[in-house]
């Protein structure tokens, strides 16, 4: 199977001085699959991508692209398409020539390079803008040109490092929807680094979570979000209800376990209006529980109390590993 994988990383290590940036990371990305690398700032996400691209050399471990060991190859022979957050387009070249550039430097003849570039521009819905200069594009269009440039190489593996970080929220959500369709159409593997959990959930079939350079959990996206393996992962993914349960243990009460209506009433001890609704904390018998109420649900607040019960079947014990670093 691994011969068919777009990417196979085995036992990768990389230190910068005393900083262990990447520690024993192994993962595979199948063709046609999108995998998101998630983790807090400084956990080693960009370093993993740079090791795959050949911009850094690992201290130990191997990188195979399309079943070929490229650990000792320079970036240009690895067959990897890259889109970095500070993507640079050549200002003096047209959109078409920007996209064709990488093919031309690999020795593809001009007419063939332009045909492949047009095909890539069509994939990102930019047909008709071939003749424009980068300065005549919106931020979202320029971002799609950078993507088309990576797609045009027809690499079996695309690496995207925070590909939408320069865009505003509306453009990001438009582009997210477009990318999901695009990734489904091309048969490449995609390794995506993002800070944005919505981006990971929208685009990736699997997620890999890094902490201080080491892989702490990997699995199908919805499984990892629904069943974080430890308290640290749960907290990183935004879970708020981790109740102390003895030494080194917490009880994870997911928000889906909180059922409004029966139970209580419990006193509301904190409330705050946010973009997604009214966030309230109730003093439940199990401990303080925080949940977000939609405007309609906020109508269930009676004075300063809320009726809710906990579906115990969804409550899971987790090891509390939040202190170790
Ligand atoms: N060239 C370098 N020299 C020294 N230290 C480095 C170098 N590149 C990265 N590091 C360190 O390695 C660790 C991992 O960095 P990396 O950029 O991979 O993290 P990241 O998860 O991508 O972070 P962010 O989300 O903030 O971009 C950090 O502690 C960083 O300071």
Automatic annotation (TrEMBL):
<dbReference type="InterPro" id="IPR003593">
    <property type="entry name" value="AAA+_ATPase"/>
</dbReference>
<keyword id="KW-0813">Transport</keyword>
<keyword id="KW-0067">ATP-binding</keyword>
<dbReference type="Pfam" id="PF00005">
    <property type="entry name" value="ABC_tran"/>
</dbReference>
<keyword id="KW-0547">Nucleotide-binding</keyword>
<dbReference type="GO" id="GO:0016020">
    <property type="term" value="C:membrane"/>
</dbReference>
<keyword id="KW-0408">Iron</keyword>
<dbReference type="GO" id="GO:0005524">
    <property type="term" value="F:ATP binding"/>
</dbReference>
<dbReference type="InterPro" id="IPR015853">
    <property type="entry name" value="ABC_transpr_FbpC"/>
</dbReference>
<keyword id="KW-1003">Cell membrane</keyword>
<feature type="domain" description="ABC transporter">
    <location>
        <begin position="7"/>
        <end position="237"/>
    </location>
</feature>
<keyword id="KW-0472">Membrane</keyword>
<keyword id="KW-0410">Iron transport</keyword>
<dbReference type="GO" id="GO:0015697">
    <property type="term" value="P:quaternary ammonium group transport"/>
</dbReference>
<dbReference type="InterPro" id="IPR003439">
    <property type="entry name" value="ABC_transporter-like_ATP-bd"/>
</dbReference>
<dbReference type="GO" id="GO:0016887">
    <property type="term" value="F:ATP hydrolysis activity"/>
</dbReference>
<dbReference type="InterPro" id="IPR050093">
    <property type="entry name" value="ABC_SmlMolc_Importer"/>
</dbReference>
<protein>
    <submittedName>
        <fullName>ABC transporter ATP-binding protein</fullName>
    </submittedName>
</protein>
<dbReference type="InterPro" id="IPR017871">
    <property type="entry name" value="ABC_transporter-like_CS"/>
</dbReference>
<keyword id="KW-0406">Ion transport</keyword>
<dbReference type="GO" id="GO:0015408">
    <property type="term" value="F:ABC-type ferric iron transporter activity"/>
</dbReference>
<dbReference type="InterPro" id="IPR027417">
    <property type="entry name" value="P-loop_NTPase"/>
</dbReference>
